[in-house]
Each structure stands twice: as C-alpha cells, then as structure tokens.
Amino acid sequence: MSDRVLGGTCLVLALLYILFATQIRVGFISDPMGPKVFPIVIGVALALGSLYVLFRPDPEPLWPAFGRVGEIVLAVLVLVLYTYALPHVGFTISTTFAAGILSWRLGASPVAASIAGVVIAVSIFVIFRMILGLSLALGPMGF
Fold first, then answer.
1. Which residues cross the membrane (predicted)?
2. 49 lies in which domain range?
3. Residue 113 CB: number of other CB atoms within 10 A?
4. Each residue of 101-121: pLDDT tens digit?
5. What is the Cα–Cα distance from 125 to 127, expressed in whole angstroms?
6. For helices 2-22 and 37-55, what crossing angle results, to 10°?
7. Are 41 and 12 in contact (CB under 8 A)?
8. pLDDT tens-digit map of 6-29
9. Which of 43, 135, 21 is closest to 87 using CA atoms?
10. For residues 119 and 53, what is the distance between their CA atoms, to the nearest angstrom?
C-alpha cells in the first residue's frame, strides 16, 4: 500500500512539474530545444517511474526501525542547514561540514569523516569551478 501512495504522490508531482514547465516563457531568441524541454523530460521520467511503482509495488516494503528514522531526520536537517549556509559561508566550507557530518553518520570515524568532508568539498570545487568553469557560491574568504 505504501508503494502505491508513493507512486501516486510522485505521479501528481510529475504532472505538476510538467504543467509548470509548459508555462516557462520562451524568449524571441532561444536555442532550438528551448528551456522547456529538460524539465518536461524530467517530469516524464518521474511519471513513468511513478506508474511503474503504482502498478508493480513491492509485496511488503521494509521500513527502517524507529531509531533509523532519527538518522534520516538528521540527514535532512543537515541538508536544509547546508542550503541556508551555502550563500553565507560559501561552497567549500558548507560542503566540508555537510559531507563530514553525513560521512560520520554513514559509519566513518570522526577523523575519517572530517578528512572525507575536506576531500569531497575541495574535489568538487576544483572540478566545477576550475576545470568546468561553473560558478559556485563564494564565501567571505573567496572560496
């Protein structure tokens, strides 16, 4: 039953996503695909996945124990705080803390999680900012 609820919810979200994507205004000069295509493709993929879950649900889903729900809530809280901290402290610092905390909660020791947080943040910063030339949020120290 829970798979069907999830499938139905995701199907509604997919249809709303496609509806909102069709309302994107296209400028006079735009590329041949336009800005609507990518969101519509994502919405269609979500709708197809939702239909699969609706019509072929698992016989009996395994829900995590109640203690694991606290871990999930903590992970969501870390990600929400990450989004709020990102424009103020920059990509590298906020990603270091978020990746470190999530690594620690996934089972790494505190020292290994700290190292993983730094390596993940610096690696992503170098790849996206220096190699691909994409913009990332810069903090007060310029990184």
1. 37-55, 62-82, 115-138
2. 1-63
3. 19
4. 999 999 999 999 999 999 999
5. 6
6. 160
7. no
8. 899 999 999 999 999 988 887 776
9. 135
10. 37
